[in-house]
Structure formats: structure tokens, C-alpha cells
């Protein structure tokens, strides 16, 4: 099943040239969510990267993490906690724990925050996201959870291998798998 899913992910992904003179192509991941077989298999496939010991809670950053994270939490029988990006919405009323994100793939510094008390000291925390590029979001969340952090499951891991090892990031696809989506 995992290999079939990887093939579907490869073929449903597109790079878009924004056509504004940009030197960069923009990732279009919407084909992943549009494919019913990807959507139904993705949670299990990402959960399989971290079954033993089973995480008790999935934490994922907005916005795409809010889509992928619950799929994985459901597959693991774990709970889900949102990690909000500061400034992306109206202020959250409840007390928050904030982590500074070192400069990410856009060179931007951000804050990621979770509501206090949702992650307990005896939890085993799995971070889930669609993509790890520099590992900045994952690193920030690991800093929030300390020894409760078990790793990060992502669809695409394009981090340098030493970063993936250091942060225990595991992915279904690597950068080279995305060549199918070139314009
Ligand atoms: O490893 P990093 O350098 O931290 O980059 C990874 C982040 O980049 C993407 O976010 P992006 O803001 O592009 O997309 P999103 O808002 O759709 O989640 C992706 O969803 C990760 O959260």
C-alpha cells in the first residue's frame, strides 16, 4: 500500500511557475487532497513511520498541518493539537506556549504556539506536516516539547540528511520524487 500511495503522491503533485519573473517554482499540493485514495491512505502511511512506541498526540502547524495532522492522529488513535502561526489570525484568547521558528525556507522568522495544558508531561508527541524544507518548524516544535518529542512525519522530506537525522524527520517522498510535477 505504501508504495502505491507514494506513486499516487508523485503523480498528483505539480510545480507551478507563478509567471511573475520569480526564480522559483511554487508547490501545488492540492492534487493530493483531491485524490480520494491518497486522502484515505495518507494517515495510515504517515502513522506507519512512527508506530513503536505509539505517539499519544499529534501536533501540526497551520495551515496545511491542520489538514494532514488529524488524518495521522486518527490512524494512531492519538489526539490532535493545533500549532498556530502568530499574526495569521485574531489573537487566541487562551494562554499559549510559543516557540520561535528560526529562519525557514522563506528566510522568515515566525512564532508557533499551542494552547497551554493540551500537551501533558507524559505525552509522546509526533509532529506532522506536509513538508519539511529546512526543518525550521519542526525544530521549533521540538523545542517546545523537549523529551516528549518523538519525531516528525511528513509527506516530503527535503531536509539535508543530517537535519533529518537530528530531528528524527521521516518522509514518504524525497525531493527527487517531485520531478514528475515539473511544468
Ligand atoms: O522546514 P521548513 O523550512 O520549516 O518549511 C516547512 C513548512 O513549509 C510549508 O509551509 P508553508 O507556509 O509554505 O505552507 P502552508 O501555509 O500551506 O502550510 C510546510 O507546510 C511546512 O510547514
UniProtKB/TrEMBL annotation:
Which residues constitute the signal peptide according to the record? none
Q: Do the record's keywords include Transferase?
A: yes
Keyword Zinc-finger found: no
Extract the CDD domains matched here.
PRTases_typeI
Q: Which UniProt keywords apply?
A: Glycosyltransferase, Transferase
Q: Which GO terms describe its molecular function?
A: glycosyltransferase activity
Query: Know the name of this protein?
Result: Adenine phosphoribosyltransferase
Identify the species of origin: Paractinoplanes rishiriensis
Primary gene name: apt_2
